[in-house]
Amino acid sequence: MNKKLIALRDGFLRPGKSFIEGDIFVKLSALFMGAGYFRRKQFIKGLLITIFQLVVIFFAYTVAVPYLSKITTLGTVQRESVFNFETMKNEENDYDHSFKILLYGIICIVILTAAVIIYFTNLVRVRNLQLLAEKGKHINNIIEDIRAYKNDKFHMTLLFFPILGILLFTIIPLLVMISVAFTNYDQNHMPPTSLFTWVGVENFKNMFTNSVTISFGYAFKKVLGWTLVWAFFATFTNYIGGILLAMFINNRKTKFQKVWRMLFVVAIAVPQFVSLLLVRNFFADTGIVNTICSNIGLTHILQNIGLVSENITYIPFLTNPGWAKFMIILINMWVGIPYLMLIATGVLMNIPMDIRESARIDGANGFQEFTRITMPYMLFVTGPFLVTQFVGNINNFNVVYLLTQDVYVTLDQALANSRAKEIDLLISWLFRLTNEYYNYKMASVIGIMVFIICAIFTLIAFNSMIRGNKEENFQV
């Protein structure tokens, strides 16, 4: 059996083994958690763990039980206004709030799970104290334990608050989002006015269904395809463009290198949403770019070759599916290449000169040096960043939304039925479903699908990068 599996099995069996093999005080600790500490004269620890036990019991009966008893139905009492003849006023009944039941129920489950882990860990600890006492070894008091957490175990002290933050602000919200995907939480079931309930995997079936009334399957395929195309081009156009721009600026023959670098850095300094909103106005159907194109005859030329419909007098940069996708990728290059240029500049300066000189002596030209030395070295150093950038572009909300919101209107009725557009990414579709149409159930399903796609790609990419020892290729 695998060593990790054995260790995991022993970890689960250890509390039970401690209870069976422990003395009477260890067994009493299963009911009264402080018994083992009091027996070993660790009164402060015993008092603290006893207080913890009482707080958990109080929390379980006053908070956890009321919410967990309703979590299977997410509430049954609808909100109503009842006329009170005594006060002669309309009063609300004691109604159920489905989202509060779901949220607080998950929080209660997390807290009680942590309490159970501490409970079983406590059995192991008091058993270890018994073994130390039987061997006549020294047992630390509370002061010595505090000193240990400031010295030998200081890493555990440092990790406590980050772990608590991850639990509160990452794990619990994720559990809530995942749970919503299995409910009918939408505009028609909006708390506190209405209740929502569990529907199982119905939402996942709808995500892959394409019918007259349900077109999420059609929309998901279209949006997923464009999302992957966008992520690929947005990542590699910026990546290659940044490297080429860095090589151009750092070339010995390039004059005014500092001026060129400063101009591109200024593009980074301007907030992205400001740049994108300005560009959106520039490329609008009645914007300045269309005016210039019309004046110089470019619009007419594009009409003659079939790239622009003859029924319109402008270039639909952001209102036609094909043009909009092309412009989104092009504008993203303008926004993203300067940033990649700075990263590439630092990496290129670290390429060993001996490797370059050896290649030149062997007769390599500039293109061969780029393909055989520069790019492999860049990929070796910036590979993890490239993976992160690809995943980030899958979730790149700003560029698509800011360029096309209130500008692009879909003519595809099947997409419109699912509240999607041809230029939507999964993340912008998710945002529109929640922010504009309050369809939280399907937005949660999309969120889960985005996570699965990103996780699979990341695992495959990082696994292929760390395979083998590629570092030797760049050592002199």
The first-to-last residue Cα distance is 43 Å
H/E topology pattern: HHHHEEHHHHHHHHHHHHHHHH
Strand order of the largest sheet: 1-2
Kindly state the percentage of residues in helix. 55-70%
Mean pLDDT: 86
Q: How many strands, which pairing sense, and closed or not: the largest β-sheet?
A: 2 strands, antiparallel
What is the CATH C level class of the largest domain, in words? Mainly Alpha
Shape: flat
Look at the helices and sheets and give the structural class: mainly alpha
Subunit arrangement of the protein: single chain
Commentary on this structure:
The chain has 476 residues and is an all-alpha fold. It has two domains: 3-200, no CATH class; 210-283 and 318-474, MetI-like (MetI-like fold, Orthogonal Bundle), CATH 1.10.3720.10. It is built from 20 helices and two strands. A two-stranded antiparallel ribbon has the order 1-2. A hairpin with a 4-residue loop joins strand 1 (81-84) and strand 2. Helix 9 packs antiparallel against helix 16 (366-394) and helix 14 runs antiparallel to helix 17. It is flat. The mean pLDDT is 86.
Write the layout of secondary structure elements.
Blueprint: H1 3-21, H2 24-28, H3 35-39, H4 43-68, E1 81-84, E2 89-92, H5 98-134, H6 142-150, H7 154-180, H8 202-207, H9 216-250, H10 257-269, H11 272-282, H12 288-295, H13 298-304, H14 321-348, H15 353-361, H16 366-394, H17 397-404, H18 413-417, H19 426-435, H20 440-465
Antiparallel strand pairs: 1-2
